């Protein structure tokens, strides 16, 4: 009954997206000195959620379930970033800013989950 609540599915998907994006950022930082490496990123969670259908309604398998297998398919190369003389487009400052944004997204997902759990506990305890 409670396992299909959209708020838990959305917060789980948001946390999974943050983890995937952090992985891409870590790869960018690891390749900061690799000649010809192009910085990569994945779409924001809100953009992925909008593209996936009608808001928070599950329309297909894997949709808003936390198991977002196609997040990596949405990776894009940042072709407009300035490159170094070795044609590397990774900027450590930009990657650090992205990392802070990902931490905020993950913290937000946990806060949504905790808040929903508190509401659920309060409603069950009053029954």
From TrEMBL:
Domain of life according to the entry: Bacteria
Subcellular location: Bacterial flagellum basal body
Domain named Flagellar basal body rod protein N-terminal: residues: 12-38
Stretch list, region Disordered: 54-90
Identification of the protein by name: FlgB family protein
Comp. bias intervals (Basic and acidic residues): 60-80
Species name: Arenibacterium halophilum
Main location: other
InterPro entries: Flag_bb_rod_N (IPR001444)
């Amino acid at each position: 009954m409670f396992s299909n609540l959209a708020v838990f599915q959305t917060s789980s998907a948001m946390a999974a997206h943050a983890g995937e994006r952090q992985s891409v950022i870590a790869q960018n930082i690891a390749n900061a000195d690799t000649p010809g490496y192009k910085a990569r990123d994945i779409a924001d969670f809100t953009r992925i959620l909008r593209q996936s259908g009608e808001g928070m309604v599950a329309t297909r398998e894997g949709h808003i379930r936390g198991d977002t297998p196609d997040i990596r398919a949405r990776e894009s190369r940042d072709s407009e970033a300035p490159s170094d003389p070795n044609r590397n487009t990774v900027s450590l400052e930009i990657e650090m800013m992205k990392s802070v944004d990902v931490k905020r997204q993950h913290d937000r997902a946990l806060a949504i989950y905790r808040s929903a759990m508190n509401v659920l506990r309060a409603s069950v305890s009053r029954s």
